[in-house]
Amino acid sequence: MKTVLITGCSSGFGLETAQYFLDRDWNVIATMRTPREDLLPRSERLRILALDVTDADSIRRAVEAAGTIDVLVNNAGIGLLGALEGLPMDSVREIFDTNTFGTMAMIQAVLPQFRRRKAGVIVNVTSSVTLKPLPLLSVYTASKAAVNAFTESLTLELKQFNVRVSLVLPGRAPSTRFGENARPRMQAGIHESYTDLAQRIFAEWGEPAPVTGAGDVAEAVWRAATDPATPMRLAAGADAVALM
Q1: What is the CATH number of domain 3-243?
Q2: In terms of pLDDT, which residue wins out, 224 or 191?
Q3: Which of 32, 45, 91, 96 has its CA 20 to 30 A from that of 146?
């Protein structure tokens, strides 16, 4: 029976992915900054651990507690919407600390066991915003595009150890709490000079269009984790597939 460790399982893609793997009889280690036992059904195959991917000690404790894992899913991420001119640099750094450096730190923490066993899979969840330039998302896109480029190079480093690395690129998912969670970092994000642009973009996003569901992402992560023939970049959701 294989074991997957998934970051960012308190809602959205991470929560759905944890349930998806549980339903297929995997051992699941669901990590969250603030652990909650009520989000997933109780199971002997489920463990919920505290994890803040921006904290080195938290990462060390979680990886030690997890023990042997077969798949690492880097799903934890935070959003930021706004014109660059109005964004505090502290917010910019916060985005990169979680989305980019947190992903790198988690991989670095599990690589010793993967390398020793000459086995393991890493799935990095980024975003389809990296496939098409969009206004008001420059910083968020940069944090995810960095992970894409990092993953492509990392694949070449780890091939010798039989460690496979994949990317899952979800589309826009209005049914998740992603926007709600991003809102506290967006209060000062729209500089007054960009108000007209923001209003036009928000209106466009309000029009009917294909979107991504959490189930689309869970299915894509499953494919990336279990099927070696899956392409290294995998779109998740109708809108992401169209962009790809």
Answers
A1: 3.40.50.720
A2: 224
A3: 32
- According to the model, what pLDDT value does residue 184 have? 61
Contact 139, 146 (CB under 8 A): no
Q: Residues 20, 26, 114, 140: which is the catalytic one?
A: 140
pLDDT in tens, 210-221: 999 999 999 999
Q: What angle do CA 201, 207, 210 make, to 5 degrees?
A: 105
> What pLDDT, on the 0 to 100 scale, is given for residue 224?
98
Contacts of 144 (CB under 8 A, 6+ apart): 77, 99, 100, 126, 127, 129, 130
- If one counts every other C-beta atom within 10 angstroms of the C-beta of residue 97, the result is 16
Are the C-beta atoms of residues 170 and 218 closer than 8 Å to each other?
no
What are 46's strand-pairing partners?
28
188 φ, ψ (degrees, to nearest 5): -105, 15
Both tokens of residue 91?
């917010």
194 is catalytic: no
What's the pLDDT at 15?
97
CA distance 238 to 236: 7
Residue pLDDT, tens place only, 99-129: 999 999 999 999 999 999 999 999 999 999 9
Say which DSSP state 211 is in: -
Q: What is the DSSP letter of 193?
A: G
Q: What angle do CA 29, 34, 40 make, to 5 degrees?
A: 50
Reading across the β-sheet that carries 120-125, which strands appear in turn?
46-50, 27-32, 3-6, 71-74, 120-125, 163-170, 233-236
Task: Tell me, rounded to whole angstroms, the distance of Cα 32 from its chain centroid.
Answer: 13
pTM for the predicted model, two decimal places: 0.93
Q: For 161, which DSSP code?
A: G
